[in-house]
Amino acid sequence: MTPRTDPAPSLSPTAAATVADAPRRELLQSVVDVARAIFGAEASSVFLLDEEADELVFQAVSGQGEEFLVGRRFPAGRGIAGWVATSGEPMVVDDLSSDTSFDRSLAESTAYVPNALMAAPLISESRILGVLEVLDPSPQARSGVRELDLLAMFARQAAAALRVVTPEPVHEAEQRAAADAGVLDGARREDALKLLGSLERLLRGVG
Fold this sequence. Notes:
By secondary structure, the protein is α+β, with helices and mostly antiparallel strands. It is 44% helix and 19% strand.
């Protein structure tokens, strides 16, 4: 059954800007750095879904393009990332030159055109939050269904961690009180990073 895509917990234009806060920025950068390392990839990126604009937004990049891609947007239906976000299914393509779902013009606009990629949806509580991609992973890392399952599992854990550091909206006074306390955000960040750390150890143990 395809996961539903409404309503995702982010990103309105305001929330898209808010995603630059330190806990989420740290979390998402950890996600792409770990994914790139585990799968021996040239680059990795996380896109989050902005449902109001119907766009995917680069929120973290490791490797090629990390200097200038964060914050860039493209239509949610374009390319392999768009297909993964729409279908809720992971995907691996060993030869992008012959794959009709690959949007070469979009890739060229990022200044890096991969030869192969793996992508998995960020799903939490049946909601698609975005997409995790690894570009040009090592041949061994994309050699079978097992590796794609590992990426999908990592993406699910990343989505769960993202929800931990992205609480539901509360009254502004409560937000101010939480900010003054300074404890909740730190606790959420630590919980989220622990989730990722435990999964990283698992992946490295069976990868």
